[in-house]
Amino acid sequence: MAIGQHAGPEQRQVLGDGQTEAAAEQEEEEAEELRADQDARDSGAAAGRQGAGRVRVDRRRRRDVVYGSVFPILFEIGRLSVGSFGVMMALGFLVAGLVMQSDLIRRGAPSDLAWSIVASGAVGGMVGARLLLILHRWPEFVAAPLDLLTSRGGFIWYGGLLGGVLMTAWPIRRSGVPWTLVTDSAAPGLALGYAVGKVGCHLAGDGDWGTPTMLPWG
Q1: What residue spans define the domains of the chain?
Q2: Model confidence pLDDT, tens digit, residues 125-151
C-alpha cells in the first residue's frame, strides 16, 4: 500500500486481529505474573505457619522442661508428704529469726524478742495470706470452703505481709523496745527470709519464674 492511501477493510481486519492477539498475550503475561506472586505469597505464608508451629512446639518443650524440673514433694514418710514450699518457708522464717536475733543482741535488745516477732509474724502472715486469697476467690470459697482452706498452696504474699505486720505489733509493744530499732533489725532478716522462702515457690512449680526464655542470661 502506498503512502497516503487508506487501508481497506481486509487490511483493517488483519490489523485488528493482530492487536487483539497482542492484547491477549499481554493479558496472559499479566495473569501469569499475578499467579506467580500469589504462589510466592502462599509459600511465604506456609513457611511462616511452619515456623510459628516450630516456635509453639519449642515453647511447649521449654515449658515441659521447666515444669518437669520442679520438686513439689521433697520426700515422703509413709503417708506424710513433705513439700518443698513448706520446708523452704520454714527455713525462711528460721533465717529471718537468726539474722534479727543477732542484730537485736548487737543493739542491746532482748534476744528472745526476735523469735516472738518471727512466731507472731508467721501466724499472722499465713492467716493474712489465706484470707486475702479467699477474698480474691470468694465464689470458689462459697462453693467449696474446705477445699480452699485445706489447700497446700493458695497464699497471697502481700496479704501475708499485712497480716504479719499487724501480728508483730503486739510483741514489739510489750517489749518496750523502740519501733525504729526493731524495724531496722528486722529489715535485713525479712528480706533474706523472703528470698529463701521464694525458692520454695520455684521448687513447688507455681509459676513464679516468669516466661521461659532461650536467652543466654535467662
Answers
A1: 11-69, 73-204
A2: 889 989 998 998 899 888 888 887 877
